[in-house]
Amino acid sequence: MATPTPFSAPTDRAGSSTNFIRHVPGCGEFRLRPLQLDEDVPLIHDWVSRDYARYWGMQDQSVADVRAAYEQIANAPHSSAFAGLYNGRLSFLMEKYHALDEPIANCYEARSGDYGMHILVAPPRHHIPGFTWHAFTTVMAFMFSDPRVERVVVEPDVRNDKIHALNNRAGFLYQRVIELPGKQAYLAFCTRAGFDTALRREQA
Known about the structure:
single chain; alpha+beta; 9-stranded mixed sheet; 29% helix; 30% strand
């Protein structure tokens, strides 16, 4: 698997490169860029309205509601949203946040180097072997491109078996069940070393 490389020098408020590009041999190019509300939200609204995205919590929201939610994320000093492109096409979405500034900080002893992420993959147009894994690991590599990130924190809904499988495969260690607004979730962490070990295991 190719080593991810920064695409450009500018940084977001959380300290990451605002563009990130990664080439996966035999699959294609994965890129992250800041979410563009007018351009991206109509398609994202289609994704979040579908049953497979029920754990995203936006199934009943309008396009305007989804836009307002991401405008709030974009304007907050501790969070950012990014569009994931696969070979130039919008194909996944990620959110990044500083754990100390979110409700999850009330559930454990949060550290300054704890940053959380959420990922949503588009409904498939056709089968691409390994696509979800490559999108997920691109997001993780992007998170760790920020030197401030010591651990990636996730809080997936306890019922979301698909994301649990990805998290475990990527090196997350599950801790316990926690209560968050609107859901019962698992608390899990992944360090750089844990992620690197997981990638090496995949390549073996």
